[in-house]
Amino acid sequence: MIAGKIGASSSQQPTFRVGDERLIKLTSSAGSKVSGLLNKQGRPQGVLRVAVVGGGCSGLQYKMDLQDSPQNRDILVESAGVRVVVDPKSALYVTGSELDYSDALQEGGFKVKNPNAATSCSCGESFSA
What we know:
single chain, alpha/beta, Hypothetical Protein Aq_1857, Chain: A, seven-stranded mixed sheet, three-stranded mixed sheet, globular
């Protein structure tokens, strides 16, 4: 009987908070690219996860991943037609950031403009806070 209760509780929807673009904002080009990638993967209702992890030449780096839905404790933000999720620890580092996308041949791809970054490396992939 206890196993049934555990099984029932594990099937509950994850609990997450709803935030706004003061946490993270996508430009229209980033929103279009992410929407296209989600549709291409067959998950139009999916989310873009933005996280900050240790590593890179400046100590911290961004990690982005497409997922089906928010996880427990995530903060969900809708920006440029895309649902973006950030875990509480990463939110400390990305608050006020803007995610942009460029398809330029040189220096193209996703770029994060982060007002919290004290320094960033020349490749633009990592930062320190």
